[in-house]
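TL;DR need structure tokens for one chain.
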Amino acid sequence: MKPITIAIDGPSGAGKSTVARALASRLRYTYIDTGAMYRAAALLGIEAGVPLEDESGTIALTERMDLHFAPGDNGTQRVFIDGRDVTEALRTAEVTRLSSPVSAISGVRRVLVSLQKRMGAGGGVVMEGRDIGTVVFPNAEVKVFLTASEEERALRRWRERHSKGDNVTVEQIMQQQRERDQRDSSRADSPLAAAPDAITVNSDGMTADEVVDRILAIAEERGAAIS
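>> reply
TL;DR here they are.
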């Protein structure tokens, strides 16, 4: 049976990465974290000293970037740029801060959307981001808009960052989250939005495994061949 494409969109902190990774593992599909791709573009800009205002310079860096994913230990995924493992570097506070503005640059999106389409062309992928079901794979067999309450999303981010020694408060994260949500949903190119035929899943009070089970049920409801 032909493997399908599963598109998961939603705001930051909704649990997309955790759920998509677990779902791909269950199905033995390829997991593609598109957010990491925009983080990679932001990292290159930082390293090269190219400011956000220099959009042509940022686009040029992205066009030259050789990016690929590889499996890591215990079901994790590693991200490589030009053969260099940048997985940890992509999660620094500075990269996190710049990834959303970088993703709003149309030329950067053009380059990375093209790469995403090539990565998922054969199906058998779980791809998560903010425009997967609307722009990257509008014909995906399964589209899910994964969300959660503002408070729940902020608390999840706080736990993640607190575990890494970051003393940021929940209130600070919530403010950053609101700013990012506004930026992502109002940008002119590929704004964050649920595809018309996507099913919304609110992950409040649900474990990652429960969300995965729900998405698998959605796939079966839609007649997808899930083995």
